[in-house]
Amino acid sequence: MQRREAAGQPPLPDTEPRLDAAALRAQSELRDSLQLFRQLALDATWRYPTFADLVIEHGRWYAPAPWPSAHPWNHTPGRCFEAAHTWADREGWTYVEGYALVPGTWPTAAVEHAWCLTDHGDIADPALPDGFATIYLGVPLSHAFRTARPDGHDAVLTVGSNMMLGPNTKVLRTGLPPHALTGPP
Description:
alpha+beta; 29% helix
């Protein structure tokens, strides 16, 4: 938040949900995992040496929410980026990339993930069934920025499902453009 202010941009609003004891433990576990991911720096001279660094700086915390009942859907584990794009386009929801804490996954419970925010600001996760993730930390992206990613990439900032395409190194190297982030719905 301080970097945004130093760059002449207004700070992002505090959108941290009210968390119970279990959610606070999940939040702490996700923070610890992100510190491990930060050791995998692509280039320490870049604005964000890792995707984790970008999410730590610009991410917002989100509590899980049940899938909106007005929108029937079969969740698609393993296809979160594609599914989140589909729902963002279909419903006009906000696309978010970051991390979800999914207990029981290996080698860490923190997984790179994409989901949506509904018009009311609630999580709509088209990939994980209700109750799988215990907390989310992510960067809500504007429609213009999200749709400018080159064809073939299902993720906007991170690797996505095709490891050969890699993360968005331009953003990691130079930073997010001013129009990349969007506010709460």
